[in-house]
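The authors assume throughout that readers already know how a fold can be written as discrete tokens. In essence, backbone conformation is discretised, so a fold becomes a row of integers matching the chain in length. A single example would do more here than another paragraph of explanation. For illustration, here is how one protein appears when written out as sequence plus structure tokens:

…
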Amino acid sequence: QVHLVESGGGLVQPGGSLRLSCAASGSISIYAMGWYRQAPGNQRELVATITNTGRTAYADSVQGRFTISRDNAKNTVYLQMTRLKFEDTAVYSCNAATRAPWSWGQGTQVTVSS
């Protein structure tokens, strides 16, 4: 079982940027990883994925604004978010992308507000 701890969220104005981190308790180097988000009243959605070889993919809603990356030596996955919009407000979590998910961490709240 891998435990995941997300950090880096906060309150930001529209157009601003944030960098989220997801630290895993064990090695995740062989796994594709993803960043997910869940807004109040909505289902959790997958917004970005990165394979174990570094190939990335994004939801249309964040394409061109978000960048996912990973540092396998640190067992950490990142999400650089730029040009944030009101609709990006959500709790962001990371987890495996192509295997059964591990237990979900608490996530990190991102609030975009003026």
